[in-house]
Specification:
- This protein is α/β, with parallel strands linked by helices.
- The chain folds into two domains: about 60 residues, no CATH class; about 140 residues, 2-Layer Sandwich (Nucleotidyltransferase, domain 5), CATH 3.30.420.10.
- The chain contains seven helices and seven strands, in the order αααβββαβαβααββ.
- It has a five-stranded mixed β-sheet, with helices on both faces.
- It is globular and about 60 Å long.
């Protein structure tokens, strides 16, 4: 697992083994961990984010350059409770109207949460505020130049870069959409999260040893792997 998944840290290895019914101690992990690997960085969590996780979503943009030096903007919507991503989209020319429409598409049929956490970017103009208020969303703006106040979505963007986009160069918008769709499928169904008690956004069952031998399934073009048990034929 260490060799096949170079971006994984000790908690991810421990969680993946737990899903296979194998529980090992931290000292055992340290014994077999390659010496050159870095420890995962600590994450600061705010009380407000904890108290309102079930009714809070965060939004943000990040940029991705293509092989032809075109800059694409990726818009993300992250639900805090289970770290799910209900919606994402890509454009080369974001506007307040386009951004507002993405929030509407993320929460159709009166399913919107209570709070919307965002930064103070000028893209969130009057049209955006009008549309989000119509959905019943209360906007919570972080302080200027303080991305740490929205740590969940910032951590997600970091994971997207480290675990996926730092290893591929998209050719165009369609190619990038396919890459992100593939990664987000892995993110929701297979990737374990420390904040979810070593589970996935879509809960993943523990597979005890009596269910068969362990097999390795490549995901996201082989950047990551799912370890599961397969009964003998």
């Amino acid at each position: 697992m260490w060799q096949a998944n170079p971006t994984w840290g000790s908690p991810r290895i421990q969680a993946e083994l737990a899903k296979l019914g194998i529980r090992i101690s931290d000292s055992t992990l340290r014994k077999y961990r390659p010496k050159h690997r870095r420890r995962p960085s600590a994450q600061t969590w705010k009380t407000f984010l904890h108290n309102h996780a079930r009714e809070l979503v965060a939004i943000d943009f990040f940029t991705v350059p293509t092989a032809t030096f075109r800059v694409l903007y990726v818009f993300l919507v992250l639900a805090h409770e289970r770290r799910k991503i209900p919606h994402f989209n890509i454009t080369d020319s974001p506007s307040a109207l386009w951004t507002a429409q993405q929030v509407v598409e993320a929460f159709p049929f009166a399913t919107s949460p209570r709070y919307l956490l965002r930064d103070r970017d000028g893209i969130y103009g009057l049209e955006f505020q009008r549309r989000t208020e119509a959905l019943g969303l209360e906007q919570v703006r972080i302080a200027p130049r303080s991305p740490w106040q929205s740590p969940y979505v910032e951590r997600l963007i970091g994971s997207l870069r480290r675990e996926c986009l730092d290893h591929v160069i998209p050719f165009n918008e369609e190619h990038l959409r396919g890459i992100l769709t593939d990664y987000l499928t892995y993110y929701h169904r297979h990737r374990t999260h420390r904040s979810l008690e070593q589970d996935c956004p879509e809960p993943r069952a523990v597979e005890p040893p009596d269910q068969g031998k362990i097999v390795e399934l490549p995901l996201v073009g082989g950047l990551h792997h799912r370890y599961t048990r397969q009964a003998a034929a």
